[in-house]
Write a structure and sequence with these properties.
By secondary structure, this protein is an alpha+beta fold. It has six helices and five strands; from the N terminus they run αβαβαβαββαα. α1 crosses α3 and α4 packs across α5.
């Protein structure tokens, strides 16, 4: 008979799994508590919605099943910490990659799961190289803004030349009418 505490833990994990856009399984063996705490802070600093939870595999398997993420229990091996990302899928892998680069260490990744697709450790780290949606939007905006600016400058140049031609013709007409008045 499961205890109330275990039922609550499964319900908590299930709720997190339902909200998460990506879940990554990490091996935390060998990490002292202080380093694990530092990892949590570094991940939160990168994106405030990232959460790292040390879980019991049996409870996590039940939560995966209850949340409708069958197959995702493949990311659970021995000592597992689950990294939950609630916003962009690429941000948690980027945060892990940045942390590993900064600390010059390797965090063993068991794998990940997003949108019903189980990812290998290599696929999770490949996500770190993908630009975020914000970066892609900025690139698109820059790509669109360049040609638009060129068109605007060209139109402005044409209008300036037209205005100069109109001014020159107006002066020519004024000089012609002033000469006609002087002759009479």
């Amino acid at each position: 008979m499961p205890t109330e505490r275990k039922v609550a833990a499964v319900a908590d994990l299930e709720e997190r799994l339902k909200r998460a856009t990506i879940v990554i399984g990490l091996d935390y063996r060998g990490l002292p508590v202080a380093e694990l705490r530092e990892l949590r802070r570094a991940l939160r600093k990168r994106e405030s919605s990232i959460e790292l939870r040390v879980v019991k595999n049996t409870l996590a398997k039940r939560a995966f099943a209850n949340a409708g993420r069958e197959g995702a229990e493949a990311i659970l091996h021995e000592a597992t910490a689950l990294l939950f990302g609630y916003e962009e899928v690429v941000n948690p892998p980027k945060a892990i990659s940045d942390y590993q680069r900064e600390k010059r260490m390797v965090l063993p990744i068991h794998g990940g799961e997003t949108d019903g697709t189980v990812l290998s450790a290599a696929e999770v780290m490949e996500l770190a190289a993908v630009p975020s949606r914000t970066e892609l939007m900025a690139k698109i905006a820059g790509g669109v803004a360049g040609p638009i600016a060129g068109i605007a400058m060209t139109l402005s140049s044409v209008l300036r030349e037209l205005a100069s031609a109109v001014d020159a013709r107006a002066q020519q007409l004024e000089e012609g009418s002033a000469a006609a008045v002087n002759e009479s």
